[in-house]
Known about the structure:
Strand content of chain A: under 5%
Strand content of chain B: 15-25%
Largest interface: A-B, 39 and 39 residues
Radius of gyration of chain A: 30 Å
Helix content of chain A: over 70%
Oligomer: heterodimer
Number of strands of chain A: 0
Order of helices and strands of chain B: EHEHEHEHEH
Number of strands of chain B: 5
Structural class of chain B: alpha/beta
Largest sheet of chain B: 5 strands, parallel
Distance between the termini of chain B: 10 Å
Number of helices of chain B: 5
Largest sheet of chain A: none
Distance between the termini of chain A: 62 Å
Strand order of the largest sheet of chain B: 2-1-3-4-5
Amino acid sequence: MSEMQTNLGRALLQSLVKLREQKGNVSFEDVGAVFMQMASTMHSGTAQTDQFMQEEIRSLAEYISSAKQEILSISTHSKSETVIDRAALHLDEVIRETEEASNAIMDAADAIQAATNGVGGNTEKAIMEATNRIYEACNFQDITGQRINQVIKLLSNIEERVTKLNTLSGGSGKGINVSKVVRMTAPDDKDLLNGPQLAAEAPTQEEIDLLLASLSAKK
Amino acid sequence: MAVDKEMGILVVDDYTTMRRIVRNLLKQLGFDNVDEAADGGEAFQKLQDKTFGLVISDWNMEPMTGMDLLKQVRSDDKLKNMPFIMVTAESKPENVIAAKQAGVSNYIVKPFNAETLKVKMSSVIGDF
């Protein structure tokens, strides 16, 4: 690193420290302004001007400005709720609607079972088995619900980060409500609550049985 | 010893559809004396108030999880020997190990079918 680069780095750091002392907090916008100021100073043409450093600083300042605009465009999309908020609400609706549909399907299965009761023979047996399979298939509502809750949790995390970035870039952060639909979990087993795994990664019941058996054998 | 099909079974799950599915499957297996709870806290209260022969519980519930319920059951003098089956989508080995260490009687991964439920129940309470 050249002496000039070291001096530039030191000057940048000093500017930021000074700003922090003055304002208590340095925003994303402040960092961009310091970069821009340094770039324009260098452009004034001292003998030590390093063209490469000048271009890098200018490019970084432009990137910060552009990133700031993008963050603001996300977080000020709507006055009362963010895009992410709306997506979470839609996913909540999906959970509610699938629950209603599952109950309607099971109501129908109940009605079929009731009507079949007393028919007797293979017909009754076949119908009962078929309606049992309907019940088993309704497992999907719980599993999809948990998967959707995982996505909602992820969206909430993104939303929180966007809020922080928005604050750093000079925005107020107001109008952004971190979704409250994330399930609360007890702190002691929180790390174990991961929800359903992807089908390709999830152990089968047989693998679980083997693991349980091996744990029992160790006792 | 034959299994008493009149024994009370407590089904614990925060999803009403899941409670309904398990209740129906139990009915098909001949168990009609089924009660329900929506989380660990409600379940523990019911376990204090009434006699049950088996608990079938989900893990991921709020405010009290199935894991917390299992720990409370195992630390309660009156309930510590209660057969307890965890029925959950949490299928990572660390979950199975943690449940086993907490004293779970058997572990069923969602989604499951009537046959799996029957086999696991038989291994816990005996053939029926």
